[in-house]
Amino acid sequence: MRIRDPRIVAKLVEINVELKHGTALAGLTSLGIGGTTDLLRIKRHESLPDLLTLLDANHVPHKFLGGGSNLLVGDGELPWVVLQLVRPEPDVVLEGNLAHVDAAADLGRMITFCAKNDLGGMEGLIGVPGTVGGALRMNAGAYGMQIGSYVREVKLYRAASRKIEVLHGDQISFEYRHTSFAPDDMMLAVILELPSKSYKDILQGIRICNEKRRSSQPLGQKSAGCIFKNPPGVSAGRMIDELGLKGLSVGDARVSDRHANFFVNAGHASARDMLMLIADVRERVQKSFGVNLENEVVVWNA
Ligand code: EPU
Prior knowledge:
Elements: H1 6-14, E1 17-24, E2 36-42, H2 48-57, E3 62-65, E4 71-73, E5 81-85, E6 92-95, E7 98-102, H3 107-116, H4 132-138, E8 141-142, E9 145-146, E10 151-158, E11 163-168, E12 174-175, E13 178-179, E14 186-193, H5 199-216, E15 222-226, H6 236-242, E16 249-250, E17 253-255, E18 262-265, H7 271-289, E19 298-300
Parallel strand pairs: 2-5, 3-5, 4-19
Antiparallel strand pairs: 1-2, 6-7, 7-14, 8-9, 10-11, 10-14, 12-13, 15-18, 16-17, 17-18
The structure holds uridine-diphosphate-2(N-acetylglucosaminyl) butyric acid.
């Protein structure tokens, strides 16, 4: 979708939002898949209420992009524009055991920065790609921990009230890869309360998690992490593996040989290829195990 109306373009300049025409989302997602649309880069959180009012008044549909690491975007010209926060400098400020973090901060860098300042707890998330905002919205987790456990406060734009609001941690429910945020809420910043731990001990934990991840996940390849959520008590990856589906392909979309719940883009996969592969695997698991696998990856299909 393209914004051509000069009145909208002028207003975007006025509220400090950068318009990047015809951006290929394939270049902004870890899967390397996705069509083209206009990208709106938000330099100040405070612009959001005006920006959303402007888009709504002109019937411009939109979606919020984080780090693009858990996302499968449709092919071709996309029927909505994409909004993304520009990462401020600094993006993490420490105050005792509290870390004030911008949603656009890189998750791994944030964990490393906190570790160097003797704040730990999030070692398990070290290899998870993406932004802190994306991790927060999905309640990213790995190796027995989840980001939600450390949330003290969240600043967000609430589409329902059209305002920037602050929620206390106990007003938000964090479950397995799910939170109580509305789909059109936009994460802006978070305050995490982290346990004190020596850098040496945190590094030890990070090394162990990195080792586990390296040995079981296809890290060098284009993927969106796990495609399906684990149903209660079972591993989706193990079920897919047991069916002998590693290597199954549709075009360049392929079930990883290393971890069967990772589907990789082995070349120039389209969203159509990836969606067909997902549907095929889901059907086979349903037939053999009677289990309906739910997507873990977020799908933006036109
Ligand atoms: N397994 C297989 N074959 C495979 C993959 C796994 O037999 O192809 C077996 C493993 O040997 C193990 C069991 O299945 O006995 C579980 O595997 P793993 O430890 O890799 O964990 P997982 O349940 O597949 C979950 C998360 C990962 C997270 C890891 C580590 C989900 C959907 N996946 O994977 O998160 O990194 O645990 O904590 O919850 C993600 O969210 O994108 C993600 C990758």
